[in-house]
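Researcher: Please translate sequence to structure tokens.
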Amino acid sequence: MAVATSAEQKRRAYEKTLRELNLINFQVIADTACGNIVRRLEDDPSLCGVVVVDDDDELLGMLPRRSVLEWMLSTPYGMDVFRKKPVSAILEFRPRDYLCLDGDLTVVEAAAKAFERNEEHIYDPVVVKLADDDFQLLDVPVLLVAQAQVQLGTQQRLQEEQGKLRRVLAALHEERQKSQQYVKALEQQQAQILSQNEALQQERRTAQERSEKLAQLNQRIIEIASVFSAQGRHSFDATFEGIAATRSIADNFSEVSRQLSEELREIAEITDLILEVAGFIRLLSFNAAVDANRTSSNPGISTLSGEIRKLASRTTEASTRIKGIVDRIQKQTALSVEAAAEANDVVASLSTRAQGARQSLSQLEALLSEVSA
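Model: Translation complete:
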């Protein structure tokens, strides 16, 4: 806060006006006696002159202290001649140039105007107009002191501004170094960004190529899947037809095996009957042979009985072999029936799985339709 006040004071000193200086208020009207003015000047050494106005307070002129005293007191009989005369007589007798400045004029501007006067009047007081009817005097030494103060303040202000300028220049130099470092860092970042952009572009091109390849592959997959779907549907249709045919064949085989098993059972029954008949024939032939041997009346009967026994034996042997073959056929038939039953189970399982695969194929076709759309 003190620094701001000091800066404000220095600024006010530079802009200081004449009305702010130590002015001398010695204003008289034109009919004032010269003797009174001289006595006032002698009594008050601080008075540097006198301002003369008319009855309407219009400015008529200004008489410097040195000029009045030298002229009045050094002139022979000057005091006696002009003591009772009005001061306007001196103005008429010895008119002098004077400088009148406005009270709002700055010290710098006033000093410039005051020192533009010729050497004869350069040290004469300056008339300062404060109002239309108020004129006061400004002594040149006071103006010089004020000007010196202004110059001193200006010089101090200039030094401060130079100090500020040096600090600003130092800050600018520091900022310049920072800017150079920032520019270098920015250039490095730009190089990195360019490198990253190139890498991104390369990745983008690679991604685009991959996307195109994926699109081609997807299209190829769709085409293959479409072909697979069509071929799969035909294959499933053929599979279902084959499964149905296999199931029909298995059913027919099972039915044939069942019928064959029944016929083999009938053959087994017939074979048993043949074996039973052969047994009876052997018994009859044996009885006949016994009777023939006991009577010994007909040797041909014995021979016939022997042949009958041989035939019965061969019949029995053939029946036994037929029965063995029938047993084996029945066992194989039983195994075939079991295999046919298992085949039916397998065919049923295949049919169920094929039906599930067909549903999956239908879902795949629907998915392909959505993808291609």
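Researcher: Any highlights?
Model: The CA atoms of residues 14 and 154 lie 7 Å apart.
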